[in-house]
Amino acid sequence: MTDAAPRLSLKGITKRFPGVLANDDVSFEVKAGEIHALLGENGAGKSTLVKMIYGILQPDAGEILWNGERVSVSNPKAARRLGIGMVFQHFSLFEAMTVLENIALGMDTKIPARELEGRIRAVMTQYGLKLDPQRVVADLSVGERQRIEIVRALLLKPSLLIMDEPTSVLTPQEVEQLFVVLRQLASEGCSILYISHKLHEIKALCDTATILRGGRLVDTCNPKVETSRSMAEKMIGGSLKSIEKPAGRTFGAEKFVVKHLSVAGAGHFDVPLRDVSFAVRAGEIFGVAGVAGNGQTALLLALSGETPVDDATAICIDGQQLGRLGARQRRLKGLASVPEERNGHAAVPDFTLSDNAVLTARDRLGLAVSGLIRPRAAKKYTGDVIAAFAVKTTGAEAVAGSLSGGNLQKYIMGREILQKPGVLVVSQPTWGVDAGAAAAIHQALVDLAATGSAIVVISQDLDELLSLCDTLAVINDGRLSRPMAVAGANIEEIGLLMGGIHGDMETADAA
Amino acid sequence: MSLDLVIAIIVTIAAVATPILLAALGELVAEKSGVLNLGVEGMMLIGAVITVAVTLGTGNHLLAIVCAALAAAAAAMIFGVLTLTLSANQVATGLALTILGTGFSALFGQPYTGKSVPILRSPFPPELAADPFWRVLFGHPPLVYFALLMVVAVWWFLGRTRAGLILRAVGENDLSAHSIGYPVIGVRYLAVAFGGAMAGIGGACFPLMLTPQWVERLTSGRGWIALALVVFASWRPFRLLGGAYFFGFMMIFEIYAKSNSAFRFLPSEFWAALPYLATVLVLVLISLRRSGSTSAPACLGKPFVATA
Amino acid sequence: MQLRLEKRPEPSKLLQVVTPVAAVLLTMVLGAVAFSALGYDGLGAVREIFISPLAISYKWQDLAVKAAPLIIIAVGLSIAYRANVWNIGAEGQYIVGAICGTGIGILTNDMTGWWIMPLMMLAGAAGGAAYAAVPALLRVRFNVNEILTTLMLTYASVYLLNYLLAGPFKSPTSMGQPQTVLMSAEQTLPYIIPGTIVQLNAPIAIVVALAVWLVFSRFVFGFQIRVVGSAPHAARYGGFSADRTIWLAMLISGGLAGFAGILEVMGPVGRLILQFPANYGFTAIIVAFLGRLHPLGAILAGIMIAITFVGGEMAQITIALPFAAVGIFQAMMLFLILASDLLVRYRIRVVRPGEVPA
Lengths: 511, 308, 358
Known about the structure:
The complex is a heterotrimer of chains A (511), B (308) and C (358). Chain A is an alpha/beta fold. Chain A has 16 helices and 23 strands. In chain A, helix 3 (99-106) runs parallel beside helix 5, helix 11 crosses helix 12 and helix 13 (405-417) packs parallel to helix 14. The relative contact order of chain A is 0.10. The model of chain B has no long low-confidence stretch (mean pLDDT 88). The interface between B and C is large, with 44 and 45 residues.
């Protein structure tokens, strides 16, 4: 082992999945103590690549060098033995178990509980991470859960730490705290491979950036020198169409009014909704920002009618009270919705696209008449959606599960939008969708608003909300903040609201 | 009611409860790893018939019990291959295992039908159990003590050992366990095999302790009661112990009610059906008490496919 | 060299049809081997159980008699299982249906009128549905697992039958035998083919399967069942109530099981006796899966399982094979059909080391 050898070096890594070349001949190096960004859009192959470094997947071709020596990382245990730690985007935690048990599971050898607890406290003091080892994970916030993952990785004294999209669930303030920890680690000689598609974070944190697009390496560059724009172009591979909002838009009367909406949490650990009120005018796009797990799911279910509320007046369209109605009746009244989970919620993966049209459009469009399904009408409508939203598929008889994430999302959005709903509530409309599809979906929402529909967008992606919405409110612990116009919004203030710090702001009581 | 009768009833309750307890302990471990094996009844029948065959062939009780455990574990492996390797539906596969066990035991047991099997006696010197009071402690066949020991062992394993922690983790979140690097499928195979072995030993109790001969469907639905008990006990070994003895009491009560004129106000068939009806009732009560809690392993019954 | 599973973009339609046939054929091969190993005449067993009932034409009527209840119950179970409602107590619903229908039969035993038979059938279906309503209620209201409750109630139903036959339902002329009176001519299903034992229940089974198939494939109701079973969240999103679906699935599967029960009383059995529970309710579970939870598949699968029953009876006489062997063959079929599901959803690919899979 020489000092000159980079800590990690990838040479010609190739990985193929059925129908997709996930990584194609990718080579780059990570030096000791370097914070190295792995940049790319959803589906660019970042996650696949790090899974091979961490031993979850095996490359089909190419080699991995660790401190200059060729290694084969056959499983995560082998990776940890080399000194590679990983913090997953979707945490690998066990909800019903304690923090201590979770961390013990991440250790490869048995460590007596008391000794482990001591070591955990030592690491927490060293890096300023706060956690109670005896608490059950299900009761913890997302930020705290991430801390478990980080502590778990740090206990192994890694010389390379892989962070997979660590900030997507954090408030701006929590992101800052995380960066402090990462910089401290790097100064102690630990290399960090930081996966993200957020350019400003990478500019703020990273020494080097490797950009992937469509599974290929596009460039390795210095993010401090590059502009956000130049990196974005490399990442996306061309200029992106920006959203076209018609100039000089005016909003109509209040169309969709939610008043004092409270819902008990569905399960023991679910966040309930507490006295949520807001109003959306015709033609307006209303954004709900917030960190995951603050009541967004309950809000969508309450608005869509999947969990009807006791108070009929809590939800109104054009003065009609919808609170007690179920999803089917609300659709008939013109309230459509799209939940964030595509497979199994917004669509049935085992069903054809045509059957998936029957799922939500059967009453409004007469795809089923007096209990009898009209397959031809369903097929025709499906064809219309596919054509209007450029859905890549073999046709109306294709099974929903066979579509890529972006295409399925386009189909689902199209299925709802072509029903011309008076009100559309969508959650995470572009989660895990490629940039092209995301742009198309954003444009379709803007166009629908232009026809006089009221639209609610629930999203964790603040950038998306800022570019798409006219008005914005923040949800935290089941409470919705006062709405603010996006034009005059203060990012700092939104960040504080997302973190649950209300300052001089009051919980919303507008309407 | 004389003291002798009370003692006799207690001893009989232990005998009736033991096979259910053993099978339920095995199923508890399997379910904690995330696998729902509805084949308990079938595996018990296989254990029972193998026990009859080996006992009649060799006269060696211990060998018979070991063979019963192995045979039932082997049957559980059929279930394992289907549900774990081939990710078949666990409910349907478990039912298939029970149908197989019923058919196999009926076929295999035919030559032994009606032949009397030497039963197990208490491992303690008879002098110790001579006094009625001491009989409660020392008058049981060894499997009764074994079952009690296994309650402690399973409790200790699941709650106090690293292997138990890993097993629970696999049942709680298979994807996470996989991504940390634990062999989800491997752990589940072991848990299913253990469940099979315990069901086999539970089956062995029938010819060795309760009905000393082979008849078709000897276990008469006790495997299903064991499954219900696991839910009843909220996946906790010591509650399982209480539950099994409670159901043992219910079953003995039937015999008592039949012979006692005080219970004639309802037909004897009602008392015979009571353990099954009580199971339903208990399941309802349990669900009332435990609304929305997470005592069931989160991945129970869901197939795990190791994907990218 | 290594085998690798790849998810098919869509389940193979061809294999959905081919695999049940392959499962039956493979059962014959494996069964022959297994029974030879156990010291029986393996080839003879397969010949008697699978071939003879078809080869001997006068056995065909026995097939119709055995298949009818299996098909009716399996069609109902197919609906329930599609909705992810695990009613495995069809045997109990079958018994209670027979009890309720027979109750009407006893009351109307010396009456005449066209209405008697429909009333008995109605009572049978209602009895089965009512007995299934208990687990449905417990599942919907208290979230109690229906697998366990349906099964416990099956055990209880046997005791109910025993009780009734020992007392309230016992025929005054039975000389102490625990049995009801014989159903009258007005209460007995007509023979549809002269000179055979094939009664009206055989065509009824076919009609039930066809009707359910029609409803299932063309009506929103069938759609609802499929959505709730396949993706419960999507069903709620689409405006379908999961609770209502559980109710419907339980009541229909229980009702059809009860209907099959009373048809047995009005048909081949002729009265209620202690031996009435013939495991049709459990065997129909195999039929439902072998028929791939499809109403039309249930017809073919019902006939297939009937073949093994009739064949098993023949093998008892001709080669002294214990009847329990039939259960083993049936379990093997079920195992193989469940295993073959994987092939429908995944394709298996052979990968050599170092080779980049295409």
